[in-house]
Amino acid sequence: MKKNKVLIQNSITYALVIICWILAQLLISTGHMSSLMKGLLVPLCIYVILAVSLTLTVGNLGELSLGHAGFMCVGAFSGAFFTKCMEQAIPSVPVRFLLALLVGAAVAGAFGILIGIPVLRLKGDYLAIVTLAFGEIIKNLINVMYIGKDASGFHFSIKDTMSLGMDETGVVIVKGAQGITGTPKAATFTIGIILVLITLAIVLNLINSRTGRAIMSIRDNRIAAESIGINITKYKLMAFAISAALAGIAGVLYAHNISSLAATPKSFGYNMSIMILVFVVLGGLGNIRGSMIAAVVLTMLPELLRGLNDYRMLIYAIVLIVMMIFNSSPKAIEMRAVFMEKIKKNKKTAKEAA
User: Residue 260 has what pLDDT?
Assistant: First the structure.
């Protein structure tokens, strides 16, 4: 019965994503979707992937991480760098993009392991501060990095392009604060939806597995989990690395949705990490579906309210407060439970009457 219930809940989550894709395609084909909304489709997929992946760390593992934008940044730049380097060797843009997704996930996952080994020994505010520092260090490091390629190989510098010392055939790939330019816009809404479904499949299957139960037991009571033989370091590091790898995939999707990629505070800074955390908190800690809905609503809302310039941020703030109360207030949770109980009783009564 429990397995069937989990299967039904997961199927509903997948169905919601597929229905959203079908509705979007219908609106596009009939011409009822504005150009503004079309431009938001891929970013929506990116934010949903980031929200679902961070839910694994914050909601299921119970560790407060503020460095998710840093892992996204690592994935974005490693994926874009691979795409630019393989331009001659692999002419097909879709193939390069697919391989870039794997590269971005692998590099971000590796950084997740490297950062996680020392960081996951910390707890609470200390963990949050260190992960936040990691995100800022990565962003600032990329901002001063210059990488070029010529016949003799790769050249690195932290000064300027002139100090790379390349020959006449050399090409600058990473241009410091200007980032990487000329990345092909290979990301589409359909590819984004496929990546969202893959992310959901990975996270939901992990959560409902024996490994997922071990991870959640660490969140609930670390001492009790350790007393029954659960390897705390192993499972914490696994969850952290998987979450980082999925953030790297979102970063690659982001890099291939714009033509010029730069490590700006708006894209990969502190505010981005906080925004992703807001999606997770407002959706309900550990609630995958709630995090997805929060990511979609809070991404679309500022754009939909642009006509109300004087009141746009006020309405946005009110929506945030209402969602927080609805998801976290004990009274609201109790009312939702009573409401769901009434629906179940009505269904049972209707079946008995039939």
Answer: 77
**Per mean pLDDT, which range of 49-63, 191-205, 336-350 is the poorest?**
336-350
- Give dist(CA 83, CA 73) in Å, integer: 15
Grouping H, G, I as helix, E, B as strand and the rest as coil, residue 29 is helix
Report the pLDDT value the prediction gives residue 48, as an integer from 0 to 100.
Answer: 94
Residue 157: name the closest of 168, 148, 170, 169 by CA: 148
CA distance 243 to 222: 20
d(CA 228, CA 208): 20
Look at residue 324 and tell me whether its pLDDT is greater than 80.
no
User: CA-to-CA distance for 143 and 262, rounded, in angstroms?
Assistant: 8
Burial class, 194, CB count within 10 angstroms (exposed 0-12 / middle 13-18 / buried 19+): middle
- 85-117 pLDDT, tens digit each: 888 888 888 899 999 999 999 999 999 998 888
Are 298 and 320 spatial neighbours (Cβ–Cβ below 8 Å)? yes
Q: Give CA 301 to chain center in angstroms.
A: 19
- pTM flag (> 0.90): no
Measuring CA to CA, how many Å separate 199 from each of 48, 172, 244? 9, 34, 12
Query: Of 114, 68, 99, whose CA–CA distance to 252 is shortest?
Result: 99
Helices 330-353, 312-328: axis angle to 10 degrees equals 70
Measure Cα distances from 331 to 14, 26, 293, 324 in Å.
Answer: 30, 39, 21, 12
Q: Quick one: which of 185, 178, 182 has its CA closest to 85? A: 182
Radius of gyration of the chain (CA): 22
**What distances in angstroms separate CA 309 from CA 15, 318, 323, one per listed residue?**
35, 15, 22
Backbone dihedral angles phi then psi of residue 260, each to the nearest 5 degrees:
-130, 120
Which residue type occupies 18? I
Q: Which residue has the tokens 């990473």?
A: 174
Q: Residue 169: pLDDT band by 50, 70, 90 thresholds?
A: confident
Residues 68-78 pLDDT 10s: 888 999 999 99
Strands (E), the chain: 146-150, 153-157, 171-175, 180-181, 260-261
